[in-house]
Amino acid sequence: MQVRRRELREGFTTGSAAAAAAKAAATLLLSGRRLDTVDIPLPEGGRLVVPVAAAEWEGRGAAATVVKDAGDDPDVTHRARIRCRVALAVGGPPGGVSLRGGPGVGRVTRPGLPVNVGEPAINPVPRRQITQAMHEVDGFGPADGLVVEIEVPDGERIARRTLNPRLGILGGISILGTRGTVRPFSNEAYRETIRLSLDIARAGGIRSIAFSTGGRSESFLAALRPGIPSEGRIQIADFFAFSLKEARKRGFEAVWMACFFGKLLKIAQGHGYTHAHKAALDFGRLADGCSAEGLDQERARRVMAANTAREALGIIQEAPCSGRILERVTQTALQMGRRHLGPEAALGFCLFDSGGRLLICAEEGRNQAARDGAGPWSGNG
């Protein structure tokens, strides 16, 4: 029997949620109508109909709430309540829309983000989307001015599960979204976080950056290279090729990558995106490379039959030629990385085992210098 695969459901961004809540609140304020759904513009064209959870009068203004729906995308802001209060501006410019951040919306504290220091973390594209939605409201004329305050009642707690604190966005979540909708498992928010992290590092004058696949590999590299500033350490998860390309655009002088054997092997085998569901390891190819560096046939067969990269690494480490094998894999990963980073910047890998022990640290063209502690992290680089 053939099983039909379920189509993954798209969701919408916090920016679209805020635009819908603001439009619903403004509609109640200016025309007295409560909307169950609201039709909003999308940043790249097209429209989206969004359910409204609540709309009520509040003092001299009105407020509305939209529950953010991320669809089938794994997103910590899924089901967050985005609430907008709208009031007539007093003494403000006619026809203008003033955006403010209320409780649960983060505030920018570091330069390098697309929003100025001290401003609420409402990115430029959602700002334009919200403003456009407001101008569509019946009764909003050229003589009017409106103030929109966005709040996320549980935003401060949600933000602890994001990278906002590391980016210098404190007190809540960001209002984001370049498309207005969220493609399932697209991880758009994570890619945007990588971009913003790189912008902050660049604005802070950091010339050399350290990528890691997660918190453990980052902590291991930080212990190895304590001179790396926290703003220069960026967790990129599975987005290896994307991160190198973004680093190239910003002109960094050196990029280091801290990882474990599985990720290193995937990179060496040409995977620019290393998620387990998208990038499978070829243990037969690994076994061939091990044999070429002198691994005996019995261990090569065990490597080929391995279930995990950790199991394969354990087999390799039993052999006297393990150093040559790890060097081969690392050099191949460097070659793959160079395709994405380009020729201008230095590139290095630090490979750790699961306990944090450094197995190899190699920089393209300056391997011995990297092992001896020189290279881009020596001095004030």
Give me some keywords for this one:
13 helices, 381 residues, 36% helix, alpha/beta, disordered C terminus, CbiD-like, elongated, five-stranded mixed sheet, 2 domains
Give an overview in words:
The chain folds into 2 domains: 172 residues, CbiD-like (2-Layer Sandwich); 184 residues, no CATH class. α5 packs parallel to α7. The N terminus and C terminus are likely disordered. The chain has 381 residues and is an alpha/beta fold. It is elongated. It contains 13 helices and 18 strands.
Quick structural overview:
By secondary structure, the protein is an alpha/beta fold. Helix content is 36%, strand content 21%.
The end-to-end span amounts to 61 Å
Runs in which pLDDT lies below 50 for 5 or more consecutive residues are 1-6, 365-381
Overall outline: elongated
* Number of structural domains: 2
Beta percentage is 15-25%
| Structure summary, number of beta strands | 18
Strand order, main sheet: write it out: 4-5-6-10-7
pLDDT averaged over residues = 89
Radius of gyration: 25 Å
Helical percent range?
25-40%
**Major sheet attributes:** 5 strands, mixed
Which structural class should the secondary elements be placed in?
Answer: alpha/beta
- The count of helical stretches stands at 13
